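Recall the central idea of this unit: under ordinary conditions, the amino acid sequence of a chain determines the structure it adopts. In this exercise we apply that idea directly, starting from the sequence alone.
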Amino acid sequence: MDKICKVLIVEDDQEIRNLFHSVFLDEGYHAAVAGDGEAARRILDADDTVDLVIADIVLPQGPDGFVLANEAARRGHRVIVITGDHRFFERLEKSGHRYLLKPFSTNSLLQAVKDELACSKKLHPPD
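Accordingly, the structure predicted from this sequence is:
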């Protein structure tokens, strides 16, 4: 049986954060949410079951999404970076992380998550 994956959603807009949380729960994922980089760090420090981090670039406190994405990747988490600020496009391209530019559909986000988690399984096959 496949493991149920846990997604950490880091998004400062509460409505978007709640929407993503509901979508992931409805799809059978475990999900945690954070409204800023400091809250995300606390969750990552306390919860070693997070498989994938979805991080908005512009966050109100603590590290921005680029810093958070790099920290999460160093800890072994898969990462998807999101933003509505298209001025970050070149930096996103160079980051090496999968990214989505807002607005995007929830189906696009779910597919990106499935792709990242499938990639992770290929890198770390089950024992």
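The first strand starts at residue 6 and ends at 10.
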